[in-house]
Amino acid sequence: MRGHRMIATAGLTAAAALAPLPALAQAEPPGLLELCLATVLRPGEVWQAWSFSPWVVVPLLVALALFLLGHRRADGRTAAFLAGWGVLVVALVSPLCRLAATLVSAHMAQFMLLTIVAPALIALARPGEAMARAAGFRAGSITGGRWMGLAAVAYGALVWLWHAPTVYETVLLDPTAHLAMFALVVVASVWFWSEHLNAPKRRAQAALSLLATAAHTGLLGAILTFAPQSFYPLLSAGAEAWQLSPLDDQQIAGLVMWVVGGALYLLVIVLLAWRILSDEAAPIEHAPEIAIPTAGSQGR
Amino acid sequence: MKSETEAVERHARLSKVFGTPPGLGQLSAVNHTTVGLRFIVASLFFFVVAGILSMLIRAQLATATNDFIGPDIYNQIFTAHGTLMMFLFAIPLIEGFTLYLLPKLLGSRDLAFPRLSAYGFWCYLFGGSIVLLAVLLGHGPDSGWFMYTPLSSEPYSPGIRSDIWLLGITFVEISAISIGVEIVVTILKVRTAGMKLIWMPLFGWYLLVTAFMIIAGFPPLILGSILLELERAFGLPFFDPARGGDSILWQHLFWLFGHPEVYIIFLPGAALISTMVPPLARHPIIGYTMIVAAIVATGVISFGLWVHHMYTVGIPHLGLAFFSAASMLVAVPTGVQFFAWIATLFAGRPAMKLPMLYLFGFLIVFVMGGLTGVMVALVPFDWQVHDTHFVVAHMHYVLVGGLVFPMLAAAYYWLPHVSGRAPSGKLGVYAFWFIFIGFNLTFFIMHLTGLRGMPRRVYTYEAGLGWDIPNLVSSVGGFILSIGFAMFLMDMLIYWRLGRLSPRNPWKADTLDWAMPIPSPTYNFGSQPEITGPNPLWNQPDLGREIAAGKHYLGEVRNGWRETLAVDVVSGRPHYIILLPGPTYLPLIAGLTTAIFFASFLLKVYWMAAVGAGLSLCVYLAWAWANGAKTDPVPVAASPKGDLLPTHTGLPQAPGWWGLVFTLVADAHLFASLIFGFIYLKTIAPNWPPPFVLEVSPLLPALAIGGCLVGYLGARAARLANEAGREGMRAIGLVVSYFGGFAAAAAFVAIPWVGLEDLTAHAYAAGIAALAGYGALHALVGGIISAFVATRCAWGYVSPVRSLETRIASLWWGYTAVAAVIIGIAMFIVPAVLPS
Q1: A-chain residue closest to B674, CA distance
Q2: Where are the annotated coiled coils located (chain B) (predicted)?
Q3: Reported confidence tier of residue B293, pLDDT bands at 50, 70, 90
Q4: Where are the alpha helices (DSSP H) in chain A?
Q5: What is the 3-state secondary structure (H, E, C) of B340-386?
Q6: Which residue of chain B has the CA closest to A150?
Q7: Which residue does chain A place closest to B303, by CA atoms?
Q8: What φ, ψ does residue B535 adopt, rounded to 5°?
């Protein structure tokens, strides 16, 4: 029965996301069903500027349905998935998406949601198992960690690649490149976080790997912050519409990646350290090589 | 009675095995107690020298238009004061305390790599001596302890002075990094039975994070020093704006190190506090887990804040707002620790003993330093006081509060441990009040001097600017402070020899360092205890006697081996037995050959420097050759209960494996800093694009990167073949990777050689050359490692069980292959896609 309730919840969530649609139809914002390609969104137009491109909405709904069909329980995992999915909706459907095609800084906020907040939450829900089950495969418990290094390299490479000026502008101009890049980054991010968060035996390694990630993305942020010229002239008009100089816009973007991104990674690292310690304090389940006397309350 | 005679006999047998020969043989000492004390004594020597220099500074500034020492001497003196205090006193003192205490707190008999710490000591001593000698001869560096370019660059600091700093301090940093690796591996692996990570004394957690910060924080400075030295010696323009360099890059590299450095100094001070507070408060520490999380958070945050030292260099103003806010963030984890200490003191019944007095000194002084820290984190305020004496005062409150007061408390706390004698207390109390009052008199009023606008680093000032009286007060205070330190040192010397004998465990402490007779025996523990809780001596009151009676692990001497337990990282279950090396002159010889390299480079006798590097390589190889065994390890009895453990020799998880892992972490940080520097110059420095581009046949980079990939595949094949017992395949793999390495090294050297006309013309060319040099060096070392491992295989040191060496070759080559690919991207793709 719970499963039905979850599906109902999901339906309501989706409906809530789509609710502004009729109201917006009258306002005639440009290209409501199109992708968030390069545009100049002005301050007054923000709340009309949703984007319901089927290329984005359909995969989102399919993913939601697959997860809920494969995991018919109202538990922490479902909550994590719904939260992560909601963040994806904010990043890809809400006006933030159009704004990200206007301002570099908004792009970076969207990027943080896409590469850190949403995928980390979704990874906690271990969606691979649920979706495989929904699709009819028998899925055992998937634990990450085996490909942690590779995932970190792929994730890091994509972060840098996206911000190379030519790639950045292509992603905003070419619909195919746009879709490919977003899909690639979301998938790679979920993989990255799954490898790091679902590896109970390699938490210390995960913390180190996240530290390295925070370091190199921080360097990228620093370069954007200190650069004396704008890397992305395509968005100059957008920045000016918001009364920012293109350079200011880029600096905010750099700082979001450097400081906000760094703080998010730091948060996860501290939580991981906490988990390492908490696991340690738990009683040892199997007989250790040396018998620990029962003197303390923690030994067994 | 019988058990006591037995304990005495055990003591004699263990002392014989763990001892160091007398006389000149002392130079071969590798024992952590000896090396740790040597670090402490040498750092105190540098402290005294730097202290005398500071008295000269105060004498010069005591009155207006003073001509006691002229500007040239003054510049050398304040530079030397900062350099000595930071690099030759603070860091080595921390290292010394750690080397001495860590194994004793963790219940082990020595560190993971005793010879490495001895090598670290010699590097420190020789490097420090070079700097000190130059100062005494009047050729000391004079550009300030952070050596900002362009002042420290060739046109503005001709001659040898800046080179002294760059080479001498880099030499000392080799020592710091080797000790960092030593500490990490020791904390993770070399503990006593049953000591889970969660039961480890907080000291272990603090130093684990500190050592990681050393491993991650020093490489950017080493890289900066290498680049600046390359610019000064060979004209490669990394920091010269006229040729596509940027002098601000130096500031970034310096503070990438410099901000973590603040916490590298503070965290060990806090570690000592956290170790001393529970026994003195007679209450277990409150908030253990919170403190651990706070330590980790401090370590991570400290790497993101370096920009707050650079508010005035023209950082975009949005950036300033962010960093100002982020700088406040670091106060949170520091606050957690403070409240935990205060709570523990409240919950317990504090014993008002001498160390406690210094602990209170620490609380007051450090909190004041923290408050001014919050003030300078505010951008407008910082602009007002930047480079004034306000910052000097702030910095001294933080460093003296964060390090010196805890160290003074620790000196009194552990003096009985080192000497077996107890201080009487009187002179120590007087010393405290002289130091406390003198310090505050000197530096509190210095805030005012700074607020009134007196810049730092000026050798004199006009009368009537409102600076006269505060300066005079500071000078008087400075001399009171010096008298206090002199009294402290006297107190130490007197009681070292003349104090009354101290009972064992005079503070009724909970930690294992007090479970041994004092002064500490060379082997620490008659048998390595099995602990059952986080406060071993409180949980197991009889532990000291049981240890001496050999009731625990490794109580019997066999084959003359120096044995210590290695444990599972997390659970603390015994894993294997480490056979520690005995006294050897190799670290001293390696230190001397390294000194030949640095001294010759300094004197610009480059062929001699090459000889020094070659000799060092030979010594390192001889050192590595001395390890290992020709037979597979068999489990041997480890405790009276009959537990069996294998010896470590050649095991895949041996300490050497972990050592290489963390060395590569440091190396990776150096590499990341180099990549950052290159991209930074490309995107931010003026006078780009360069007048020419790299023009080489694609064959060269293909050979360079391909050679490294072949090196990796060969080494990997050798590792797998070794595990499968196929010796022929193993030899082929190693030979292939050997040739791959040399081909790649040659190709890397050829890339700038063939493809660029003039390396000194533009930072672009210099950057390409630096990247190629990094690649060539790693491929070359990889080739040497492959050849070395192949020889070891032929000599019978490697087997499917003793697989460490093939694994090490494989790991090195894996790193090198990844680095080679990144170098290729940086050389050929980055310049094409990034705007300049």
Answers
A1: A219
A2: none
A3: confident
A4: 2-18, 20-27, 54-70, 76-92, 96-100, 104-112, 118-124, 127-134, 148-162, 165-173, 175-197, 203-226, 236-241, 246-255, 261-281
A5: HHHHHHHHCCCCCCHHHHHHHHHHHHHHHHHHHHHHHHCHHHHHHHC
A6: B818
A7: A215
A8: -125, 75
Q: Residue B398 corresponds to which tokens in the numbers above?
A: 């933080």
Residue B669 C-alpha, separation from nearest chain A C-alpha, in angstroms: 9
> Tokens 């950057």 map to which residue?
B767
Q: Are residues A290 and B315, on separate chains, in Cβ contact within 8 Å? A: no
Look at residues A53, A81, A54, A80 and name the one whose alpha carbon lies nearest to residue A65.
A81
In angstroms, the separation between the Cα of residue B624 and the nearest Cα of chain A is 28
Q: Quick one: tokens of B22?
A: 């007398």
Task: Confirm or reject contact between A276 and chain B (CB < 8 A).
Answer: yes
DSSP state letter for A91: H
CB-CB under 8 Å, A278 with B300: no
Q: What is the pLDDT of residue B742?
A: 96
Does the domain at residues B689-833 carry the CATH identifier 1.20.120.80? yes
Look at residue B630 and tell me whether its pLDDT is greater than 70.
yes
* pLDDT score of B570: 81
| B570 lies within 8 A of chain A by CB | yes
Among A218, A284, A295, select the one facing B304 at the smallest CB separation: A218
Q: How many domains does chain A have?
A: 1
| Helical residues (DSSP H) of B533-585, grouped into ranges | 536-539, 543-548
Selection from A13, A258, A268, A225 nearest residue A117 by Cα: A268
In terms of phi and psi (left: phi > 0; alpha: psi -120 to 50; beta: otherwise), the region of B70 is beta
Per-residue pLDDT band at A17 (split at 50, 70, 90): low
For residue B289, the chain A residues in CB contact (below 8 A) are 274, 277-278
Q: Is A96 a member of any domain?
A: yes
Q: Give B185: exposed, middle or buried? Use CB within 10 Å, 0-12, 13-18, 19+.
A: buried
CA dist B501 and B517 (Å) reads 12
**pLDDT reading at A202 higher than 90:** no
CA separation for the pair B266, B401 (Å, rounded): 9
Q: Which range of residues forms the domain containing residue A229? A: 2-281
- Binary contact (A226, B680; C-beta < 8 A): yes
Residue A298 lies in a domain: no
User: What is the model's pLDDT at position B450?
Assistant: 96
With respect to residue A286, please indicate whether it lies within any of the assigned structural domains: no
115-154 in chain A: CB under 8 A from chain B = none
Cβ density class A149-182: b for 16+ within 10 Å, e for less: eebbbbbbebbbebbbeebbbebbeeeeebbebb
The 10s digit of each residue's pLDDT in B631-686 is 888 888 888 888 888 888 878 878 999 899 899 999 999 999 999 999 999 988 98
3-state secondary structure of B620: helix
Give dist(CA B177, CA B492) in Å, integer.
30
The nearest CA of chain A is from the CA of B330 a distance in Å of: 11
Residue B630: strand, helix, or coil:
coil
Q: Between B296, B319, B322, which is nearest A269 by CB?
A: B296
Q: In Å, how far is B320's CA from the nearest CA of chain A? A: 10
Instruction: Using pLDDT thresholds of 50, 70 and 90, give the confidence band for residue B267.
Output: very high
The residue type of B449 is T
Q: Is B822 on the interface with A (CB under 8 A)?
A: no
**Mutate which: B187, B196, B300, vs A, most A CBs within 10 A:** B300
Q: How many other C-beta atoms are found inside a 10 Å radius of the C-beta of residue B280?
A: 25
Q: A283 at the B interface (CB within 8 A)?
A: no
pLDDT of residue A106: 96
In a domain, A114, yes or no: yes
Q: How many angstroms from the chain centroid is the CA of residue B341?
A: 26
Instruction: Tell whether B635 lies on the interface with A, counting CB pairs under 8 A.
Output: no
A123-140: average pLDDT: 83
